[in-house]
Amino acid sequence: MREALALAQSPDAPVGENPRVGCVVIDADGTVVGRGYHRGAGSPHAEVVALADAGEEARGATAVVTLEPCRHLGRTGPCTDALISAGVARVVFAQSDPTQAAGGGGLVLAAAGLEVLGGVLADEAERINADWTFAELHGRPLVTWKAAVSLDGRVAGSDGAPTAITAEAARAEVQRLRAQVGAIMVGTGTALADNPHLTVRGVEPAGHRSVLRVVVGSRPIPDGFHLHDDEAPSLFLADATPDEVLSELFDRGVRHVLLEGGPTLSAAFLAAGLVDRVVWYVAPVLLGDGPVALPAPSGAGERSVGVDVDDVMVVGEDVRIRGWVTYERAEQ
Question: pTM of the full predicted structure?
Answer without folding.
Answer: 0.87
